[in-house]
Amino acid sequence: MSQDNGAQDNGAHAGSGATGANGTESTTAATTDASLAARAKNPKKNGPKWWLISLIAVIAAIAVVVGVTFAFSANDEGQTDTSGASGAKYADSVTVGLKLAPTNLDIRTTAGSALDQVLIGNVYEGIVARDSKNQVAPAIASSWEESKDGLTYTFHLNKNMTFSNGDKLDAEDVAWSINELIAKQYHDAEALAAVIKVEAKDADTVVMTLKTPNSNLLWTLTGRAGLVFDKDAKYDLKTQAIGSGPYTVSKFVENSSITLKANEKYWGNNKAKTPTVVINYLADDNAAVNALKSGDVQVLAPITETLAEPFASDPDKYTVKAGNGTDKYVLAFNNASGSKLADKRIRQAIRYAINHKEIIASRGGADKALGGPIPSLDPGYEDLTGLYPYDQAKAKSLMAEAGYSTDKPLELSLTYANIYGTELGDQLRSQLKPIGIDLKVNVVEFSTWLQDVYTNHDFDISLVDHNESHDFYSWADPTYYFGYDNKDVQKLYNEGVAATSDKERDAKFAEAAKLISEDAPADWLFNYRVTTATAKGVEGFPFDLNQTVMPLYDVTYTK
């Protein structure tokens, strides 16, 4: 795994995972690093709920993802070029190099974003889709209406849709797919807990009925919860895929490659511009960088700012750009009663003492400052960076009020997984020392972090990259590992979820987020941004959110 000045750019993540019918991890839902989950110790009896399984799944699946490469792999001999509207000659084959290889293709039960990244929008489609700005967009459904009480959604489907095997795709497939997910508790089923039933009103209309409003429903349906499968097809989902997207899976080699071919029966507007896309799984960052330099690959994403520097310095041959994402590097405090950080003055002092600009600059400058729990691409975001500006004098004053100084320092520990390197811990120790905090940095194995911090809540301060979009719920859950219990926040969050308009939802979430930030139960070090380097001639590769949303139909390479 690559590091940027010693700090891991994309390490452990908290997010969605796979659960079985009883809310426990399914034995068939192996993560892409099963050994990681196996190393975790037994939790306490009052241990985590389903979101612990979620954390394990996504951390295992995403923590090692640090490189995406994109290459032209066909030989000139026997190659057939295709032409774009402008007359440019496009290569007929492109290779995308990714870091993390999925163990199988069963997107219903196998956890981790590696499958979402490659399969959703390329091979499988949902009733609705998510665009590069994290907004809901039409997909299998061309339009929809929500009842005034927020309990009924009516989806109007596109006509003349087919799966890649030629089977017709209609409302029965949509209803069956979502009902099957709920009944068998496939991946993300818990996000549809409010759904009572999904019915095919006619061949082109699907009606979804809820028991309580859920303002996040449509966005949830842009992921695995809304994927549509062929109810009549018989195939091995672990090694094959029959979807309705612009590509099909023509070959899958476990831990090695996935070959995508343009779907000849594709029904929609996103027709593949490149006939063949080969996903190759590469393990070595230096080899990937050398491949970009030599011209063997055309895209690396993400790439650390340090490794991207030679390409950024050669704009005639390369383009380097940072894209927006939802990763939040959260410096979480233990807010439980009796904790050293139960004193709000100490939490506030830490926030004032952290020089975020310095930390971001040390990582290359691509990341964005983030002053609260909601990133810019999520509902309810507002810029809260002004609440706790860097002010060492104010931090010292607050520490003095709490009874501490450089002569009488407060001893605190910072515990985080070793996948982030040591640089962040060293910087934080240095920044907090002048205000009277003696910070001991414990860099541990992830399984140790998972047991001690996440499960047993045995920590003072923790650091983890929470990458999942729409994960604001964790601040309204007092049992979550940072133990933040604010009834006003919980009320506002629940009202936001129950809102029947986006405007009302966003206002409730924004109000709650501001209360949280003011309360200082954590510091948000930065909003991590994915840096992508492309060779000249590559067009249509997505920069924003490309670790979770990576549509390939528009990608072309011109020599």
UniProtKB/TrEMBL annotation:
Q: Which GO terms describe its biological process?
A: peptide transport
The Solute-binding protein family domain sits at 136-469
Question: Where on the tree of life does the source sit, at the highest rank?
Answer: Bacteria
The yes or no answer to whether the keyword Transmembrane is present is yes
Q: Provide the residue span(s) of the region labelled Disordered.
A: 1-28
In this chain, composition skew of type Low complexity spans 11-28
State whether keyword Isomerase applies: no
Give GO MF terms, alphabetically: peptide transmembrane transporter activity
Q: GO terms for CC? A: ATP-binding cassette (ABC) transporter complex; periplasmic space
Q: Where are the transmembrane segments?
A: 50-72
A Pfam family for this UniProt protein?
Answer: SBP_bac_5
Q: Which key words are in the record?
A: Membrane, Signal, Transmembrane, Transmembrane helix
Write down what this protein is called. Peptides ABC transporter substrate-binding protein
Organism source for this protein? Bifidobacterium reuteri DSM 23975
Its taxonomic path starts at: Bacteria, Bacillati, Actinomycetota, Actinomycetes, Bifidobacteriales
